[in-house]
Specification:
By secondary structure, the chain is α/β, with parallel strands linked by helices. Helix content is 43%, strand content 16%. The strands form three sheets. A four-stranded parallel beta sheet has the order 2-1-3-4, with helices on both faces. The radius of gyration is 19 Å and the shape is globular. Bound molecules: 1,3-dihydroxyacetonephosphate and iron/sulfur cluster.
Length: 301
């Protein structure tokens, strides 16, 4: 049963012919009013396909910017203007240009968790669910620069035979949120459980996990498995527990909370629809170059 503010959001959404997209880390109350939920790749695909004048993106800024680039016909609103991604800000376009100058001839793969300007300087984008496929799409002899996430880049490279040089960015939530001691303790206390890790976690975590996958990969896996330990942001663990109360789904650590993903409230979504705020604007020349980088990824499917 939806609460009064959720009901008003649904009414306004219909009145405005808007589509609401919500990332898997958003609060369950936000997921409940969304038309589509998913990981970064799924939401990019939904944004591109959305036949709506307004897209309300419940996530963080780089996701809303990606939606605005993929669907320039729509007005994309980010309900909380302050919801950013610290990792996306760990490399600027200027730093990337200098990195490219140091590695002439290298192909540049950027994680979708990056600014529009960095995408515009990159050859092809990737998400956590297709990073290996993207690396493998690049000619075997070509050097690859991977920005900004050192952890996703290192893990994806380990699944291929490509020569990959990673930038030193990281997601503070995944990089600092899990320790090897957490893995050892949970393995001791919960034998028989399957440990799923997000590739934004540090190498010592992913190398000791049973499986490494995106947030939607974890959601698919949870459909047919009952005993899981999850190494990703707490929002996904909460979502899985709300979907499967009869299963035993445990976080590897309860401290892995993305404050940025939690900034968006139902009140923000309501105000976004009432006042048509906060509209994402991307400079057209940058948007064109970033679109090429995103399409190079989406065309791979
Ligand atoms: P995915 O949902 O694509 O796995 O990404 C996780 C993330 O950290 C998004 O910011
Ligand atoms: Fe950025 Fe990490 Fe938050 Fe994802 S979980 S939005 S990568 S800070």
């Amino acid at each position: 049963m939806l609460n009064p503010i959720q009901q008003e959001i649904i009414r306004l959404k219909q009145e405005n012919h808007a589509v609401i997209l919500a990332h898997n880390y958003q609060a369950v109350a936000i997921q409940e009013i969304a038309d589509y939920t998913g990981d970064s790749l799924q939401l990019s695909i939904q944004a591109r396909a959305a036949n709506a004048p307004v897209i309300v993106f419940c996530g963080v800024r780089f996701m809303a910017e990606t939606a605005a680039i993929l669907n320039p016909e729509a007005s994309v609103l980010l309900p909380n203007d302050d919801a950013g991604c610290p990792m996306a800000d760990m490399i600027t376009a200027e730093q990337l240009r200098a990195f490219k100058d140091e590695h002439p001839g290298a192909a540049v793969v950027c994680y979708v968790n990056s600014t529009v300007e960095v995408k515009a300087e990159s050859d092809i984008c990737c998400t956590s669910s297709n990073a290996v496929k993207v690396l493998e799409s690049i000619p075997a002899e070509q050097e690859i620069l991977f920005v900004p996430d050192q952890n996703l880049g290192t893990w994806a490279a380990s699944q291929t035979h490509r020569k990959v040089t990673v930038w030193h960015g990281y997601c503070p939530v995944h990089h600092w949120g899990f320790r090897l001691e957490d893995v050892e303790k949970m393995r001791r206390d919960y034998p028989g459980y399957v440990l799923l890790a997000h590739p934004e976690c540090q190498w010592e975590i992913v190398k000791n996990a049973d499986l490494v996958m995106s947030t939607s990969g974890m959601m698919n896996y949870a459909q047919s498995h009952d005993k899981l330990i999850i190494a990703t942001e707490m929002g996904l663990v909460d979502l899985l527990n709300s979907m499967y109360p009869e299963k035993s789904i445990l976080p590897l650590s309860r401290t892995a909370i993305c404050q940025n993903m939690k900034k968006t409230t139902l009140q923000d979504v309501l105000e976004a629809l009432q006042q048509h705020q906060h509209l994402i604007k991307v400079e057209p020349e940058t948007a064109t170059a970033a679109l090429k980088c995103l399409n190079n990824m989406l065309d791979l499917r």
